[in-house]
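In response to a reviewer's request, we include the raw inputs and outputs for one of the modeled complexes. The two entities were modeled together in a single run.
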Amino acid sequence: MGVAALMTQSDDVKATVEWAEQFQGNYRLMTAAEKAEARARLERRYSAQYSKKVTVDTSEALPGVLMGYALNIRKCIGCRRCVNACVEENNQSRGKNPGERIEWIQVLRMERGEFSKEKMNEGYPEGLGIQVGGNAYTPAGQVLEGQYHYEPALVPEKDATYMPIACMQCEKPPCVKVCPVRTTYREADGPVVIDYNWCIGCRMCMGACPYWARRINLTTPVLPKAEMNPVTHYLGNRPRMRGVVEKCHWCLQRTRQGRYPACVEVCPVGARKFGNLLDPQSEVSLILARKNVFRLKAELNTFPKFFYFYD
Amino acid sequence: MKKLTFSAMLLALWCGIISSAFSQPTQPPEITCFESRKGASEVVRRDLQPGWPNVKCSPKTGAVLWWGDPFDGTVPMGDMPTVENFPTGKAVVKPRSEKIALMPMCAVACHNGVGPKFNPPKLPTSKMPTPIPTMAAMVPDLQNLQHGGGRIWCLDCHHTNQRNKLVDNFGNPVSFDQPQLLCGKCHGDKMRDWRDGIHGKRIGEWASTGKKRWFTCTECHNPHNVQDGARNRGFPQIAPEVPPQLPWGMKDAKHELRHGVSH
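The model returned the following structure tokens for the whole complex.
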């Protein structure tokens, strides 16, 4: 279609722009002029495609900023508003058919077990699923590794705790290490991003990520015109194509402009916090100074910039 | 003849009215959604720009899922013990007192300080909650007020003579827009964390000196319903949003109970 459009001098914006996109360089290697050209091209194409004025931001990493995220796991009630806010903000696919809905945040529900001295010498737990926590004989702490399709009438449930996970924006990201085309990399202000145009969909990064944070568009993304968020970033929430990997990028289109990520704003219990780790007065720095903080899978030496804490 | 002309004119006029009524475009239904919890602040959905709404609401629960403009409908917070060096004018709140339906009546209709038992003011000496049928009908949570484990009652928080105000430690009235001045009397640790941005919710700009909309205590917590037997945290139970899509070929989520998350 692109060739035909080029040969016939077609007015089809989508076709001509897609053709030009095939010849653009890796985003990191583009000059400022090439970036501006790519930006104008995409704005033209998306505006025509979604029938509204779409902006594609290309702002660079903010100087003197290292973004950090903190989440209070004792506050989380498992309501999944963050998951849906993320879908609304970041133009994820939201079709009804299997595989057409993509969510970057997972909220895991974990059942509480019990620990008692009397049960210490009993046999291995049966019928309780995978034991996580406690000792080998008694399912203490969590008795399930996690559910995320849970659907009770009301949350939080009495005997459950919730643990949201998403991209941890590692300082030493395994996904970046394995990418054969170097389409994914870590920005200077923290987030790990993807140049969707250079992604070949090999899913090496999905295999390498220890936090299950990456998703692939196996089907053509379903994004209704009315629901499309027209404020986008080149490395952030611009509409993706089929066959590319995508992930959380801490709402670059918002955070580079000073606004909180969408999941932080929507959390009804205020469990999610975001700020500049280099600023001692920021929310995240104060949490690191005052609260009990841990990082998920710290033993893997990925050094996440996502911190869990509790009061 | 005149009669016929008159009826013809009437018919023409009627047809005109009907046709104009039908030719008007149908208005989209007005959607109101709640921001943090049901019963607290609400917002009406509208378009700030074409294709850019002020909020997006959840079709399942009616909660706000996304803010287009976080400062829509806010006013400066005013005097507050803020973080040191926090720029003034950058802390805003959404005024709530105007939204509470019965608030204008409280200090006029019943609690005007000149009722039969209140002139001169004569308050009960015991702090045991007294059943008040009229209030219980309006605020059902008062049937079993468990705030403070039953140790506090109405006038520990509400002003004696000005019932459309709360009360601080010195008996001074406190606006319903600044409940933190009241709540911080007992929950000092939470007050400090809230002031520093660790507890509670703020939307707007993430920089520590940025402009933010602060959510005050009562926007998230219902002070009349603090101990709900069915939940295990200090927040009322709410309906969750839609669960994630099941993987290909999976009919229901029961597999998770046997095998954990399929990764």
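As requested, we also summarize the result in words. The longest strand of chain B covers residues 64-67. Chain B is about 25% helix and 15% strand.
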